[in-house]
Amino acid sequence: MWNIDEIEKVLSLIEVAIEYREDNHNPEALAIKITELINLYPSSSEALASATYHRDNQRRIEYNNVVSAIKNKTLGKEMAGVTSASNLTKYIDSRIAHYNYIVTKAERLNRAITHAMDGYRSILSHEKEAFKINHQNF
Question: Are 34 and 121 in contact (CB under 8 A)?
Answer without folding.
Answer: yes
